[in-house]
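user: Please supply your own:

assistant:
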Amino acid sequence: MRVGLIFGGRSVEHKVSITSARTIAQGLQQAGHTVVPLGLATDGCWVDETAAAAALAGRVDRLDAVGLPVARTMERLLTCDCEVLFPIVHGTWGEDGTLQGLCEMLDLPYVGPGVTCSAVCMDKAIAKRLLEAQDLPVVDAEYVTREAMADSAEGVLRRVRRLPMPWFVKPSIGGSSVGIRRVDQDAELRDAIEHALRFDDQVVVECGIVGRELEVAVLGKPGAFEASVIGEIVPGAAFYDYADKYLDDGARLLAPAELAAEVAAELRQTAIRAFEVVSGYGMARVDFLLANGDGSFFINEINTLPGFTSISMYPQLWELSGRPLPRLVDDLVQLAVERHGRQRFMDQGIKSWIRELSERDGS
């Protein structure tokens, strides 16, 4: 198949997306697919084939702003003649349902979850509330808006202080731990909230869980999801932040994680259940916190377009589970095509039903 590989984009994860795309391109080619590079510049413009190919080949690690209205550059996407799209644009304007909506409008199959799941999982506050409503374990948190801070910052701080320290202060929307701070002293709380509000209008403040950071890769479709072996992140810093992930190279990845069989089984089943709750499809990486002492665990985050870099857990966990990269990316492509076919079938069914009603009323 001709697979359009979409990468880059406007978010702060631009370079990470390009690195992920290089890994995916290798896997697609090894699986027998033709890769069509579709690059997005830092201003959201679709770059020409030469520039996109250069980034995919590693000759450049950034697609600089084009400086045109985005709509005028969309010809690259509209004329690429692809049978399926593989978006790997991390963060906002790519992982949040916006790019998925564009794929839907173009009536093209695309890899990964749909619009609803992508949008829900990108917003930490909405995702946490939804999971909690379905009795899935999440970390206790308070939610802070920009308006609430402007109206009564002291009132907000009092509300947050009911949570035990340390606190983790996060922009509600964002990825790769951008804007997140760990707060170990009360005097640092307000500054951390104001810092997070630089990245979004709502902030999630969670109590710290002393324990292990675990990750499970999920693949498949409703009724047939699979969960990988479990990996563990050992942060090189106080927590697994952006610098630890992409700049300092201090974190260690342990897989499979050393866990009792019954704990591993429960985590894997919970990962699948969480993905079902958010209307998942295709792929996700579900991150957990496993508390020291009592062994309780909490869902930390659901990542709907997980990284595919050389240090990313998602492809590594599937490799360890017996699904090497070429098979993994091919499975994702086939799932995308299957979903698209089913959506078309349902659309035709709706149109046929409306036509039947019209004919009956007209008779």
Remarks:
- The longest strand covers residues 211-220.
- DSSP finds twelve helices and twelve strands in the chain.
- The mean pLDDT is 92.
- The two ends are 46 Å apart (CA to CA).
